[in-house]
Write a structure and sequence with these properties.
single chain, about 350 residues, Rossmann fold, six-stranded parallel sheet, 14 strands, PnrA-like, ABC transporter substrate-binding protein PnrA-like domain-containing protein, cell membrane
Length: about 350
Amino acid sequence: MIAGVSACSLVACQSNDATAPSTPATTGASAAADGGTIPAGEPDVNGDGKVVIGVLSPGDINDKGYYQSFVDSAEAFATSKGWTVIKRGSVPVADALNAARALCQQKVDLVALGASELKDAIPASEEPVCEKTAWYVPSSDNVPQTPKIVLSSDEPRQSMLAAGYAAGLLMQERGDTKAGFVTGPEADFSVLAAKAFKAGIKSVVPNAELITTYTGDFNDSAKAKEAVQAQISQGVKLVYPYLGGATDAATELANTGKLITLTPGTDRCASTKPTFDISVLFSPGDYFNAALQQFAEGKLAMGVKRVWQLGVDPYPTVKICKGTAEQTQKLETFMNDIGSKKIDVTAEVDRLGS
């Protein structure tokens, strides 16, 4: 899943979860203090006198949400440093490997994948064409650690459980008991997200019902609107458009019915068209920005994994846009309890999410 600047660096906070190779990954690389290896010359890894960031995304990089946040972070940071960004969105999974090779041929210093769906690109990191590149990869359980990449991940059940809890607080205030969840393909991660979201709602509203619709496409606005309309007809009072490019179309329709709405990854509490009631922040751009800062300082190590924790790190997090002081405090306490492990997320999701 999923998702600003984190105050916690990718290298300095390796205590959460880190693995490292026993020797430098490339000639001239140096060992990082907290594990992994730092490519020689970072950030000018290929030594051509300039820094170029290459970004590949499986989604619409103009979706005003999850996928765009990743590219926006790269471009904002690169501009501040006088770097160049080469970007490509809507990369088919089947074309991931060739797309990565093409970036390396353009002499990029860092290959950044916008989401783990493009994991098939990773073997290019071991090929001669990409020899002098660093790699940033958003992680999921099916992405193996290798010496040539840095993995960045979170635990999506944490943010989705907290999103459901926040939704439950607003539903409780209005006396609502029926909610909707609209997403794209029925994949493992989207099924798990719906399950965790439901568990969060039911922890506040025990008799709540969640209607989940899989449209098969994160970016198809027509399908998303059709799903939202069907859910409105079934009496939902809240809808979570857990989508990409179709987010705004789905939310605008939900707004017409005065439904409670949530964001899929970014802070849009200030948005007026459409409007959102809860911002669920797990934007990859938040994590990527921290990685780029380390890259600029020559401290971004390959061969390590960083796991971002809700209730511990600044991101992921959840906020109620116009919540009461009591609602805000309850949500803050809930997230802190997740961070301290007072709340067992896995057990809670299994207990209430089925």
